[in-house]
């Protein structure tokens, strides 16, 4: 029996989107065709990627000498799947499709709301309606998405379609994004003389770096003895702000940059005692999961997807509790690998069989 032929469509090929897709290519018994775009300007990717990728898919099929040389389409939510199917032509449109929700735009914390912002959640909805199966990375993501649909549709001036949330929920499943543990297995936890706190997130407003730095600066003002690692990606418009805020920590700051490789990233996480999130937007949070696997103890807000993944001993409510919990960790450092078991459930070895089963089921049912 020949392996499944899967067309992957990823308009934002970077970060967790890229890591998950590359891992699925490596760990599933399938022949993959990857159509990707660089991870930049995500709003423009959502607006226009379907045009580019439909043309590329038609050209690939023509070169292969088959109207549609795939058994399955696997797309992320940065693609308007409905537009792609309409533009790619009937043979490709007939290939069953899965859309994977790393996030959803209905609950994304926009700083500036305008009428054109409505296009992004609408793209998620039409993609979900177009797909044969919707896969969400957490139950929280799925439930929040479906709960917000009726209110969003209520913004339509007329012709408000009914039953969309129910239709989408009926064909949806929850399947966590797996990660590759190999670089972390090769980097044993190493502890220095002082408690080391890592903030492993990209520097953007939805990860709320201001709250993190406010917390650690308060502790520094108290004279607490600790170190800070900033290990996330910055962007041109935020790089200066990141370095200015991090630089205020002085000698307590031991790293402030995106590591050059996964191996370097793993070695850096392996030196941390505590991994902190201050996110106002998180649908899963691979960075904290990886930090747990590397040996750090998580400290995450009691909101978003985090209660689904972490027990109450790892969650905090508000700034005062964040500072207090960090103060406690600095005084009494957590044992290395104390929370590694939380992350072990999400490796490719554990989750790849579920993905293989999903792919085969959708390809054969349609």
Q: What are the salient characteristics of this protein?
A:
366 residues; alpha/beta; Rossmann fold; 2 domains; six-stranded parallel sheet; 45% helix; globular
Helical fraction equals 40-55%
Q: Supply the CATH architecture of the largest domain.
A: 3-Layer(aba) Sandwich
Radius of gyration: 22 Å
CATH class of the largest domain reads: Alpha Beta
Our count of helices gives: 16
Structural class call reads alpha/beta
The end-to-end distance, rounded to whole angstroms, is 18 Å
The global form is globular
Question: What is the fold-level CATH name, i.e. the topology of the largest domain?
Answer: Rossmann fold
Order of the strands making up the biggest sheet? 2-1-3-4-5-6
Concise overview:
The protein is α/β, with parallel strands linked by helices. It contains 16 helices and 12 strands.
Q: What does this entry look like structurally?
A:
The protein is 45% helix and 16% strand. Strand 7, helix 9 (209-221) and strand 8 form a beta-alpha-beta unit. A 6-stranded parallel sheet has the order 2-1-3-4-5-6, with helices on both faces. With 366 residues, it is an alpha/beta fold. The protein has 2 domains: 4-178 and 347-365, Glycogen Phosphorylase B (Rossmann fold), CATH 3.40.50.2000; 182-344, 3-Layer(aba) Sandwich (Rossmann fold).
What's the SSE blueprint?
Blueprint: E1 4-13, H1 15-27, E2 30-38, H2 42-64, E3 72-76, H3 81-88, H4 90-93, E4 97-101, H5 119-130, E5 133-136, H6 139-153, H7 164-170, E6 172-174, H8 182-185, E7 195-199, H9 209-221, E8 226-230, H10 239-247, E9 253-256, H11 262-269, E10 274-276, H12 286-294, E11 297-301, H13 306-309, E12 315-316, H14 318-331, H15 340-344, H16 348-365
Parallel strand pairs: 1-2, 1-3, 3-4, 4-5, 5-6, 7-8, 7-10, 8-9, 10-11, 11-12
Helix pairs in contact: 2-3, 3-5, 6-7, 9-14
